Amino acid sequence: MILFCVSLVFQEPEWDVSSAFVANAANHIKLKGGKNRAMQISRENKENEARGRSEIKHWSLQGIEMFEQGQYSQAVDRFTEAIHCDPKDHRFYGNRSYCYWCLEQYSSALADAQKSIQLAPNWPKGYFRKGSALMGLKRYSEAEKAMEQVLKLDQDCKEASSKLLTSRVLQLMELGFEERQSKVLLEKFTTVQAVIAASEAQGKRNTSLLWKCRSLWVGNITFEVTEKDLVDLFKTFGEIESIKVLYERYCAFINFKNANMAAKALVKLQVSTQTAGCSGHCPPQKGPVAPVNGDECYYWRTTGCFYGDKCRFKHIPEQYGRDKKLCQP
């Protein structure tokens, strides 16, 4: 009987969750489980970051490799992938800007340069990329400011010093100064504004480049001549605002940003021009595209030949413009 009573007394008790020991043990178990989960999440994050860094490095190195091989379009694609992986790294925008510059896609180069500056305002190379893109767009005064900013951040950047001088020379050339004269004047007066203000500089301007009209009329335009052909020919003289091709009248209008750019094109190419006042009234060129008088160029005798020395027909100097008809208002 005693044994029976003992067995009843020592039945397995229920847990008392209010017990201090039990409560502390439960807390310990919960904390341990939470810590394990946190460690797992941290480990996964680190692994993801490592994979991300590896992928970024992969695209970046490939972009550099493509660039060094001169494969600029492929390099653009690689740096674009790197940007997708890390859109906050200013260096990728700077590198892609350089690739676009090499491809002569200056607007895209400028956009990437500006993005790199936005991400890293004190990064000299961002301003250098911006200035280079602006030079390509023939926006020389803006390029000058960008290069000045480069030198504020990095006084020893020789490339920026060189491009700064070039941007100033090109501004003066647009104003009618010769290249050599521009360099000499800048050595003495330093800035474009100082040169313009100097009385001794005024007599050195090439008055043949002082043109009042920023539009050029171009004759001898056939369906074989595309708008892109005209852009490629005239863009070397300055920024083109618009082009209007009138195939039915065998002509086109080239509208530059300013008159000096038009003047340079006029002098270099000897393009037949009309003033802006006759816009929309170009001479009707309905003559034959075949030679006249045997093997003479029809357009050489009228409006001037677009093909110049490459024309397959004869250009007799004394016959130039002999059959040209004046523009009718």
Automatic annotation (TrEMBL):
Residues annotated as domain RRM: 214-276
Claim: Metal-binding is one of the keywords in the record: yes
A Pfam family per the record: TPR_2
The keyword Zinc belongs to this UniProt entry's keyword annotation: yes
Keyword list, A-Z: Metal-binding, Repeat, RNA-binding, TPR repeat, Zinc, Zinc-finger
Positions of C3H1-type zinc fingers: 291-318
Spans through the membrane: none
GO molecular function: RNA binding; zinc ion binding
PROSITE patterns found in the cross-reference section: RRM (PS50102), TPR (PS50005), ZF_C3H1 (PS50103)
InterPro entries hit by this protein: Nucleotide-bd_a/b_plait_sf, RBD_domain_sf, RRM_dom, TPR-like_helical_dom_sf, TPR_2, TPR_rpt, Znf_CCCH
Organism domain of life: Eukaryota
Residue stretches of each TPR repeat: 56-89, 124-157
Positions of the C3H1-type domain: 291-318
Annotated PANTHER family: TETRATRICOPEPTIDE REPEAT PROTEIN 31, TETRATRICOPEPTIDE REPEAT PROTEIN 31 ISOFORM X1
Name of the molecule in the record: Uncharacterized protein
